[in-house]
Specification:
The protein contains 1 helix and 13 strands. With about 180 residues, the protein is mainly β. Strand 6 and strand 7 (about 80-85) form a beta hairpin. It is globular and about 40 Å long.
Length: about 180
């Protein structure tokens, strides 16, 4: 038999990052990634590697590059340290968001990784606008790793790393994977 070996050298993986329950800014430092010379990321995936309990909800928004301080004149959030590259606020409705934000490893019926748009003030970045809502079940997910991902490009990477706002129903561990 002939076997094909896949070349993973073009992929970028971050170190695992602990995320507390509640709201936080999750940072994936470029220096912790397997490849640090990229100027843009394609298909950025966020993997839930571990969680206190198998089921939970994670709200997310405001993905960008952080640095201290952010370049002057940039569209910044996260205490003026992050230049925003992707925001759920830009989508008119859930269908538009789901055309770009997707899930993987949802199990046979897809219920282990479900994505929707959130508009309630208590679950959005800075209490207004929109966020992505990811409901997961690690026991039923393929390989026990539910994934939500951005099917687009984040260009002009700069600064110290990639960051996003999250609100988690429980403590969990996230990892970022991209090409």
């Amino acid at each position: 038999k002939m076997f094909t070996t896949y070349d993973w050298s073009h992929t970028v993986q971050s170190a695992e990052v602990e995320v507390p329950a509640g709201e936080s800014i999750v940072k994936f430092p470029f220096k912790s990634m397997t490849k640090t010379d990229s100027t843009e990321f394609h298909q950025v995936q966020f993997l839930i590697m571990d969680a206190d309990t198998p089921t939970g909800t994670l709200h997310f928004d405001a993905v960008g590059c952080y640095t201290a301080p952010a370049p002057s004149g940039s569209h910044v959030l996260h205490d003026d340290t992050t230049v925003i590259k992707e925001s759920v606020d830009r989508y008119a409705d859930e269908a538009a968001m789901k055309a770009v934000w997707k899930t993987k490893n949802g199990g046979a019926d897809g219920s282990a990784a479900v994505l929707s748009m959130e508009t309630s003030e208590e679950n959005t970045y800075a209490g207004n606008g929109k966020s992505g809502k990811f409901v997961y079940n690690t026991e039923n997910a393929v390989d026990h790793i539910p994934i939500f991902w951005f099917d687009g490009s984040i260009c002009d990477l700069s600064g110290d790393g990639l960051a996003l706002w999250v609100k988690s129903s429980q403590k969990l561990t996230l990892k970022m994977f991209t090409t």
